[in-house]
Amino acid sequence: MKVLITGGAGFIGSHLSHSFLKKGDEVTVIDNLITGNEKNIYDLLNNRLFKFYKEDILMFDFSRLLGFDLIYDLASPASPAVFEKMSLEILKVNSLGLFRLLDFFIESKSKRMIFASTSEVYGDPLEHPQKETYFGNVNSYGPRSCYDEGKRFAEAIIFSYIKKYKTDIRIARIFNTYGPYMNKADGRVISNFINQALDNRPLTVYGDGSQTRSCCYITDMIDGLLNLGALPGIEGEVVNIGNPEEKSILEIAKLIKGMTKSNSEIKFMSIGLDDPKKRRPDITKAKKILKWEPKISLVEGLEKTIDYFKNI
Ligand code: UDP
């Protein structure tokens, strides 16, 4: 099978690239490395089944490529810590970049596409847990808008392409994900807390830490994304992929402090505007249509992630 992964050198994208290559598939990656890292795919660069273009999909000359069996679009910065600095890049890649990729998808007669959307389409949710049918509570004019509205617009673009071209595109609403090959410095909660704890620096809890997140270990996320790309009969479906094990940020800080046997103190800091107060996926639909549910508990996933950060 021939697979194209945009953003294939990022955290989730590089795991996906490795998975397809292990199965003997051909993988092409386009990634401008704005947040991805070539180190994530170093071991693949000499693989004859792997092709890497260090380019931006906004400028990429798609006429160089033939059609693919499967396209995964993961080309977007995704950490709230970069939303301010990369807001225009985020808006452009999820609109202009997506239009270019979709036009290539249609013209090249590629067969199927998976788009990486996000739990952020639910904003600061008033419905809990979040089902795919929830329309969200999103601020269109604030620090998270570039990502939240970027992905919402992207979903609207995809809906229109499906209607116009009767084509096979599926949307994954990806919830918080963590594990090895996360960027140590991208500002996300799990990587921040683990690295702060390992260095005995204060664990920076934003707000009072009562906001919740439900974190999915990377191998579970990859299994969900693979099923979404592999199964027949789910054209046009939008599906939450995440782990419903919900914890407050303060609980996660204490858990990581304990697991790393760290002397770090917990330091409460100011919280950004519109930071969602709670988040947990309803995965009823994923269980049903993807025949999937996460297997790795938070403690088990944290153990593996702590080991990874200890050894890099
Ligand atoms: N957070 C925190 N300390 C950090 C990083 C994040 O308390 O050093 C909080 C953040 O305010 C949010 C949650 O942890 O409530 C998850 O943040 P992250 O940036 O990982 O992703 P988000 O779920 O907000 O997209």
UniProtKB/TrEMBL annotation:
Pathway: Nucleotide-sugar biosynthesis; UDP-alpha-D-xylose biosynthesis; UDP-alpha-D-xylose from UDP-alpha-D-glucuronate: step 1/1. It is a single-pass type II membrane protein. The keyword Kinase does not apply. Keywords: Decarboxylase, Glycoprotein, Golgi apparatus, Lyase, Membrane, NAD, Signal-anchor, Transmembrane, Transmembrane helix. The keyword NAD applies. Its cofactor is NAD(+). Its main location: Golgi. GO terms for biological process: D-xylose metabolic process; UDP-D-xylose biosynthetic process. It holds the Pfam family GDP_Man_Dehyd. GO terms for cellular component: cytoplasm. One of its GO terms (molecular function) is UDP-glucuronate decarboxylase activity. Its EC number is 4.1.1.35. It is found in: Golgi apparatus, Golgi stack membrane. InterPro entries: NAD(P)-bd_dom, NAD(P)-bd_dom_sf, UXS-like. Residues 4-305 form the NAD(P)-binding domain. Belongs to the NAD(P)-dependent epimerase/dehydratase family. UDP-glucuronic acid decarboxylase subfamily. This is UDP-glucuronate decarboxylase. It comes from Candidatus Roizmanbacteria bacterium GW2011_GWC2_35_12. The lineage of its organism: Bacteria, Candidatus Roizmaniibacteriota.
